[in-house]
Amino acid sequence: MSSSIFKAYDIRGLVDKELTADFAFATGVAVARFLEQEREPGTVVIGEDMRPSSPTLATAFAAGVTSQGLDVIRIGLASTDMLYFASGKLNLPGAMFTASHNPAAYNGIKLCLSGARPIGKESGLVTIENFVKEGTPMAMRNVGVEKRQEMLEEYVDHLLTLVDVSSIRPLKIVIDAGNGMGGYTAPAVFKRLNAEVIEMYFELDGTFPNHEANPIEPSNLKDLQKAVKKHKADIGLAFDGDADRCFLVDEKGDLVNPSALTALIATRELKRYPASNIIYNLISSRAVKEVVEENGGTAVRSRVGHSYIKKLMAETSAVFGGEHSGHFYFRDFWKADSGMLAALHAIAALGEIEVPLSKLLSPFNRYHSSGEINSTVSDAPAAMNKIEKIYGKKSGVEVDHLDGLTINGDNWWFNLRASNTEPLLRLNVEASTEARMKKVRDDVLNTIRGDLDGLDLLLLIP
């Protein structure tokens, strides 16, 4: 077993090389042991995406779980947020077979405790990994029972109790499902809306014949942008492979900054729950914090990653959390993330007024951002130390280490974080003007990549 298959938040690897039916069975046994140790309910709910390997792997995993006396509920095809719904609604631990946005050669397992509580490296995944390595099952007992249960309509019903779309104006919506699970869940949701839907790549196909189901990459949104302009649509939606993330395109065909969507949803949730806490991760725009506070809420800053967001939501009783990566978390959805619920909030907000999406979002687009830029480095900690020595002691500059290295200036900031799995540094920059953002971005990148040796950042800023 390759230890690299156990990631920070899930299990993910190459099918038939790292992720095999035997491995899935062993993981099912290990998960059963872990759940017994945690005194969790004795039934596991299992969902699967459209990848060709998912049914086989899910079946092997289910056999491992039931071999230890626990029962299994198979909900069949599902988006990841639909699996979270099932875990929350039934109050059972869950397993979702998906590799999310990864290419077709991959698959994986996302695990949660009852109530959709996350299982990651800091909350049980290391224990499960060690149990797999040990390969020692619990004492054999009566084999558990496996049954099937449909959850799609209940999932849609629940979403529509959280967002009122009953009186929206007629909208034209283009949806790019990327041949992923959005092609399964979106029809069940949008048939209930006052909307004309133009479907793109709704055919479930885990080989992803049209483009990767990874909308955080702008190249994968080009087809959607063209279609929105061609059809003169009000909004475009793009889902990733397991449909737990959603990205927007406005009526002009322009990409919507995920931080703007975070701010929009925050305003809506603060109307329902005044003076509440809202979580945002540290690479989100400064506009998110400003908007939350302007609307009477308290903005709580978090590390990047769903386990940190969910933990902080529980600790602070936050009603909503947004990540710049397109994950949006809702207290009323068991603190789990749902791309579909985020999309419904955007549609409801747009459908309530007679203005285009770009104008609706303009109050939240206050700054200029670089997006996430990766640099290959041989020694990430050394590179970050170099950056901190150069920029961290400037007058008027603040430094924090909540997640990697963040340098804050008066009208600009940047964050550097090391990848958990690759020799990469991830850079995000934001500034009050595009020119300033580009200068900060280029100076930091040149310093990291060795083209410059510690130029004075402040001298480069007009």
TrEMBL record:
- Which Pfam family would be a valid example here? PGM_PMM_III
The protein's matches in SUPFAM superfamilies, at most eight in alphabetical order, are given as:
Phosphoglucomutase, C-terminal domain, Phosphoglucomutase, first 3 domains
Family matches, as InterPro entries: A-D-PHexomutase_a/b/a-I, A-D-PHexomutase_a/b/a-I/II/III, A-D-PHexomutase_a/b/a-II, A-D-PHexomutase_a/b/a-III, A-D-PHexomutase_C, A-D-PHexomutase_C_sf, Alpha-D-phosphohexomutase_SF
- Which segments constitute the Alpha-D-phosphohexomutase C-terminal domain? 372-445
- Alpha-D-phosphohexomutase alpha/beta/alpha domain location is 5-134, 153-253, 258-367
Q: Out of the domains of life, which is the source?
A: Bacteria
Q: Which GO terms describe its molecular function?
A: intramolecular phosphotransferase activity; metal ion binding
Q: Which UniProt keywords apply?
A: Isomerase, Magnesium, Metal-binding, Phosphoprotein
Q: Does the keyword Metal-binding apply?
A: yes
Q: Which cofactor does it need?
A: Mg(2+)
Keyword Phosphoprotein among UniProt keywords: yes
User: Biological process (GO) annotations?
Assistant: carbohydrate metabolic process
**So what family is this one in?**
Belongs to the phosphohexose mutase family.
The protein depicted here goes by the name: Phosphomannomutase
The species is: Candidatus Planktophila sulfonica
